[in-house]
Each structure stands twice: as structure tokens, then as C-alpha cells.
Amino acid sequence: MGKATKATKRFNRKYLKDELERRRKNKKGQELYKKRELKKSKRGDASGDTDSDQDQATGIDEVDDLADFAASTLGRKENLSKFMEADPENDSDAGNSTDSEDMAALLQEDEDDDDGSDDDADLSSGETGETDEDEDEEDVFKKELEAMKEKDPDFFKYMQQNDPASLKILEQNDEDSDEADSDAEMEADESGDDVASGAEVTVKMLNQWEREIKKDHSIKALKKLLLAFYAASHMDSERNEQSDAPYRIQGMSIFNKTVSTTIRAAPHAFAHHAPVVNGKVQVKGKVRVVQALLKSYMASLLELLRQMSDAAMIQYLIKECERVVVYFRSFARYTRELVKELLRQFGSASADDGVRISSLLALRQLAVGATGDVVDMALKGMYLTYVRHSSVKNMASLTTIQLMRNCGVELYGCDGGASYQHAFVYIRQLAIHLRNSMQLRSKESFRAIYNWQFVNSLAFWTEVLATYCGDRADDQPDLCATLESLVYPLVQIIMGVARLVPTAKYFPLRIHCIGLLLRLSSATGIYVPVLPLAIEILESPEFLGRRPVKSTLKPLPLDAHLKAPKEYEHTRVYLESVLESVFGILADTVAAQSVRIAFPEWVVPATLQL
Q1: Cα dist. 478→203, 230, 466 in Å?
Q2: What is the pTM of this model?
Q3: Contact 482, 448 (CB under 8 A)
């Protein structure tokens, strides 16, 4: 661990004791408040209407209790409400420190710093993940007091009268800033003229730094190169932080040269100063210096990835992130930021197939050796990203949705326990939505079920179970045994959706559901009664009791529709499309059952009924 700063030591010496006491009092007050609120809620429940409470209990809130059951079925004590409530795209903890702080840390570190440890250190031990998120409590406390003085002067006056000791830190503000300025001047004098403020980067400088890094493994040259890389990554940043960097990038040729040189040389230097041994990063030399270099490189790489719009460049940067993913795992903050950025690239509307596949590969490699929180974040983020972008607008979008679904299925094969927990919770959510719709029987409740997000969610979990309980059951038998118990509830949900509104308008949705059941049955070998759902379509009044209307419309592509457009209802074109799909389903169903010993007894009644 790195040495504490002067400000931290001063805060610990002068104000830590009072601050801890103040926090203890606040904690006790919060506990008393929670107890009073709990008593009020109990009194309100006792006097309230039990019927209305019973109706509201059928919502998605039941998932919190079911999550504990899902964990208990695997013999684990994890609380799944944690990953159900967290949003990987709005993670407030991920922004505890900024890129400018990383650059400042990089500038403060020097290869001749005597405070660094000379012993080898392990970055994968978890200590860096904790210290990486620590903030200077003194500065935070000052900012809180100053904000309170402006926003709530009455309470500030009350604090002056009753707790003046907590406000003494503001009196030391000017003195501390003067000391910090003097310390900065001393450090600048010691560092010399190695890094000129605002110096323009040239090709000659980049080539020299690269030679020194590859030949002598120079940390000093690596530091200069990473500072130039920082300036390049913030050229188009909204925060315009390039003005704070000691180097300036002028022109696209220098930008491209800086990025390519850094991506070639930095991993080579890190492999020497922080080699990976048995999956763990072992730092040689001074730990603080190497940590600052790694943080700067990862922060600049992520910032550059956020700004890129060219698909080829995005793929190139994602592959570079995949190369150094073992270093990302050593820092919790950058791990979260990498997961969020990969998910953003995966779900981007402008992303092509190559970007999505590269994002999947990087996410998979990151999740394989990561902690449980990272795996949960990746699995949940992948599923939610897929659902958000699963609306079918035209035939072209079907290919993209299918690719995203296949990518999600691949990711869910990384961790069997986590995959089961996520699958259980989300399948249960779908069941609760279906049950509410069946109870309410309103147009709004039907819309909650008959939409592409819901149907594609069913298709996602169907593909997960069909893949790992059927196609790859022999390759991953433990995962198959874990997920196999979810096949029955998923089949019940799909059959309930197919029969929710049994009208001719929704024949396309029923055909989609029958296709999901066929996929699940043929892959897992579990018998699913699909034939009655198909025969009900043929026995409907649309085919037996009404004469179809002639029309000159084009054939309706059922794959891109859940219900028939109004102009297609009762038309011959629509019924012929449905009839063709039903005959295809019957053929697939017979082919799936033809290898079973009960096939004669199964096919004869069906033949007589047809």
C-alpha cells in the first residue's frame, strides 16, 4: 500500500477523533429513525385494507424473497436483491475519482521516489481495489461544510453555536492551501525540466521514448509517453482536460502516432515491471509508481474508447483492453468502468457485428477470473442491454437481435451458479407479469405481455436452456444439472403467453411461442405438447367458419410481426401465410418425435384429428 499523504496525516491527527464521534451519533440517530418508521408502518398495515395489500403483493416485489430461495437451492447465502437493484450503466461508485486525479497522481510519482516499496507486491490481492476508491476525507469534509454554509446558513449558525470544533477545519483552509502550493513548488524544482508544461509532442520524441522503453525498460520514458497518451485521449473530451496535461497533441498524424506507439510500448513495459504470474500481477520495484502508470493507461484507454466512432478503431481498442484485462481486474473502479463501456458498445445502435463480438469476447475474458460482483454486473448488464434493444422494427433488425441473443447465451456459460440465479429471478419476473395480465384481463395488461421485449426475453432464456441443457450438456454437465430445473416453469410461461388472447389477430405470436417450445423440446429431449397449440389454429373460425377476403397485399412476413395489421385481418394472404407456418411446425414436430418409441401412439390421434 502507498504512503499516506500529508493532508491525510494532518486530518487524522487533528479531526479524525471528532469526525468519528460525529458519525457515531448520526448512525444512532438513523437507527432510531428507522425503528420509528418501522413501528409506524406496522401500525399502518394493521389498520389498512388487507385486500388491497394482497393485490399489490402480486407484483415484481416478490422477486426479492424468491432471490433468497434461488440462492438457497445452490447452498449459497448471497443476497440477489443486490444485483437486481444495481444498474451497471449508472454506477455511482464508479466515479469516485476522475481522470484528472489519475494524471495528477502520475505527475507526482517519480522513479526516484524513496517512499515506494522495493519489494515485489501483488496487485491482485484486493488491496488495490480498496485503496483505489479511497478519497481525501479532509477535502470532502471541507466541501460539505462550504456547501452547507451556502445552502443552509441557519443550520451552519446552529453548528457554530453547538459544535464549533467541527468547523475549525475551515479556518485551516488557507494555511493548508499555502502549504500545498509550497510543496508543489518544491516537487517541481526537484523534477527539473524533464517534462515541459504544454510541450508539443513530436514524432522524434515518441520514437525516443519507445526506444528507451523497449531497450532499458525506462519508467521515466513510460511516464512521459503515458502523459502524451492522456493528452491524446482527451483531445475531444467535453471536460477539455488536455489543457491540464504537460503535453499537447497537434494534428491527426501525431494523434495516430501517439496512440499506436503507446499501445505497442505500454503493454511491453508493464509485462516487465508488473508481470503476470499464475494469473496474478506481481509488481517489481516501487508499487506506487507502477500503480499510477497502470491507472493512467487504463483511464486514457477507456476515455479514448468512449470518444471513438469508427468501428475499426473501436474494435482495435477493445482488443487492446482484452490484452490488459488482467490489470483491469486489479482495480475495482476500472473493472466496473470497463464493463459499463463494453456493454455500451455492445448495445450501441451504430455498432456493427464485429464491435459486438469483440465486446462479448472482452466481457467473457473479464468475467472468467473476476469476483462475483463483476460477474453479476456483466450478466445482468448483458441481459438488460439485450432487452432494451430487442424491439423488432424490420426484417434487418432480426439479425442483430439474434446476434445479441447468441452473445448473451455465450456469456451465461461462464459461471453456473450466477447464471442460475439470474435466470431464476428473470424467469420468475416474466411469470409474475403473465399472472398479473391473466388476472386483470385489460388492454394495458395484455400490452405488457404482447410486445417484442417480452417475447424476445422468452427467446433469450429458451436459447440459454436449450444450449446448456441440450446442445452442450455433455461439455458442461454441472451447468446442465443446475439449469435443468428451470425448463418446466419456462415451458408453462410460454404456453400461457400463447393462449392468453386466442384470436386470429395474434396467430403470429402463437407461432413464435410454438417455435420456442419446439426448440426447447428438440434440444433437451423433454416432451412438450406442442401439437395441440398448432391444431387449435387450424380449427379456429378463421379457417372453418368464415370465408377469407380477397386482397392484393403482399405476403405478411410473420417473423417480424406479433399480430396481424388491421388491413391483413381475415384476408386470404394472411391466412395462407399462417397456414404455411403451421404446416412447417407440424413437420418439425413430427420429425422431433419420430425417434421416440411412442411415436406411433402419438401420431395416429393427430392424423385422425387433422
Answers
A1: 55, 45, 15
A2: 0.71
A3: no
Low-confidence ranges of the chain (pLDDT < 50): 1, 46-97, 110-120, 124-136, 173-196
Calculate the CA dihedral of residues 339, 342, 345, 346 and round it to 10 degrees. -100
Interaxial angle between packed helices 507-524 and 572-593, expressed in degrees from 0 to 180 and rounded to the nearest 10: 10
Orientation angle between helical segments 572-593 and 531-538, nearest 10 degrees: 150
Dihedral, CA of residue 524, residue 525, residue 527 and residue 533, to nearest 10? 60
State the amino acid at position 572 in one-letter form: R
CA distances from 337 to 222, 333, 377 (A): 24, 6, 11
Q: In this predicted structure, what is the pLDDT of residue 594? A: 86
DSSP H or E stretch at residue 281: strand 280-283
Amino acid at the residue 216? D
Strand 199-200 relative to strand 247-248, pairing: parallel
Q: Cα 50 from chain centroid?
A: 39
Measuring CA to CA, which residue among 454, 581, 563, 457 is closest to residue 508? 563
Largest CA distance in the chain: 96
**d(Cα 194, Cα 238) in Å, to the nearest integer?**
29
Q: What is the pLDDT of residue 175?
A: 46
For the chain, how are helix, strand and coil distributed in percent, rounded to 5?
Answer: 75, 0, 25
Radius of gyration of the chain (CA): 31
Residues 560 and 565: their CA atoms lie apart, in Å, by: 12
Query: Are 138 and 11 spatial neighbours (Cβ–Cβ below 8 Å)?
Result: yes
pLDDT computed for residue 188 by the predictor: 41
